[in-house]
Write a sequence for this structure.
């Protein structure tokens, strides 16, 4: 059975009242949902509260979930709406993930490193992750959200279009431009192909 | 120049430089994201979600109430309160009997009959008003339906309903579309 069917089955069992099925869904989606929200609000504490809110809303609205659709895209739509509603209500005084993070429990405090990685490799990946994170943070919110859904969570264009309530063509344009902007920012930060041209030294 | 430990970043940046193959750039960026560390909420997140999602059950509340009573009555303050309550009830009993006697005397048929007649008149008034409104509503509906017997008017009415439905749909779309990032302050 593929993941999609398993998730739909879990959702149906959760809808029928199975706490264990819902717990399994939370376990499967806690990182993707948290990552998406964190990328948008850029504050780990707020992101955790909002992610929790997303799952609570999903639990209470499980009766509206259509098993024909992918559970993840339905959940991401709730996450999208919850994040936007939060950002509209709140004043823009949130902590940025870019600076002063460690002592405030910023992005470094919530990164999960794969086990068995050498310290050098982990440091290098950490550098790359940090720079890519900053490049993503510099994107427009709609680009950022589409990038996370597409490249981090593997959603299709159609699913992103549905989650963000935007036309398919707009999503494709957003992703194309976002990728170009990311590449420019990464090159500007010193990451360039070995034999590539136009890279700063 | 910084270098990653693998060629994922190279593949992506080269694909973006070439600009010809969008799919290759997409695949390379997806692979790059997959190789990066993940964000994760604090431990016990699922437990907190379950706790927040499931409201407290009424049975547990009644169990708490049931447990509270014996504990309260078992305490010195509870016993003192119960004793004071019994004393107050004993002292109030003569007054209660007097009050009940006076109430029963007031409920004589001679006094009750006018009150009942008044209530009946009031109720009849409301029923008559309701019937009048119903008649008016029926007449109003008939006057609305009469023009619809003409095909032209019926078609016009149908068109109006269609336009209204489309307008409502458009309004709903507008409200939904409002949940986009255009209307959110960038941080």
């Amino acid at each position: 059975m593929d993941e999609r069917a398993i998730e739909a089955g879990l959702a149906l069992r959760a809808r029928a009242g199975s706490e264990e099925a819902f717990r399994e869904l939370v376990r499967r989606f806690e990182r993707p949902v948290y990552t998406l929200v964190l990328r948008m609000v850029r504050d780990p504490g707020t992101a955790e509260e909002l992610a929790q809110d997303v799952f609570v809303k999903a639990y209470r609205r499980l009766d509206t979930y259509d098993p024909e659709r992918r559970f993840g895209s339905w959940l991401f739509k709730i996450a999208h709406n919850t994040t936007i509603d939060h950002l509209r209500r709140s004043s823009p005084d949130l902590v940025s993930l870019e600076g002063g993070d460690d002592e405030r429990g910023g992005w470094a405090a919530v990164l999960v490193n794969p086990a068995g990685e050498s310290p050098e490799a982990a440091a290098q990946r950490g550098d790359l992750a940090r720079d890519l994170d900053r490049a993503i943070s510099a994107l427009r919110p709609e680009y950022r959200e589409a990038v996370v859904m597409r490249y981090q969570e593997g959603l299709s264009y159609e699913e992103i279009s549905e989650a963000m309530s935007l036309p398919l063509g707009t999503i494709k344009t957003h992703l194309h431009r976002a990728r170009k902007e990311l590449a420019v920012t990464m090159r500007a930060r010193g990451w360039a192909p070995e034999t590539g041209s136009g890279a700063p030294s | 120049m910084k270098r990653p430990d693998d060629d994922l970043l190279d593949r992506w940046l080269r694909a973006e430089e070439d600009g010809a193959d969008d799919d290759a750039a997409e695949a390379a960026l997806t692979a790059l994201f997959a190789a990066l560390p993940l964000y994760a909420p604090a431990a016990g997140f699922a437990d907190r979600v379950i706790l927040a999602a499931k409201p407290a059950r009424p049975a547990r509340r009644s169990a708490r109430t049931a447990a509270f009573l014996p504990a309260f009555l078992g305490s010195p303050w509870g016993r003192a309160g119960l004793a004071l309550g019994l004393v107050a009830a004993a002292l109030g009993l003569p007054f209660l009997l007097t009050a009940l006697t006076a109430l029963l005397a007031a409920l004589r048929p001679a006094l009750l009959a006018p009150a009942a007649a008044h209530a009946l008149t009031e109720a009849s008034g409301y029923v008559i008003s309701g019937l009048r409104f119903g008649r008016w509503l029926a007449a109003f509906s008939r006057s609305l339906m009469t023009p619809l017997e003409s095909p032209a008017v019926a078609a016009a009415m149908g068109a109006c309903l269609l336009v209204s439905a489309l307008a409502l749909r458009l309004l709903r779309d507008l409200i939904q579309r409002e949940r986009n990032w255009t209307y959110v302050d960038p941080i």
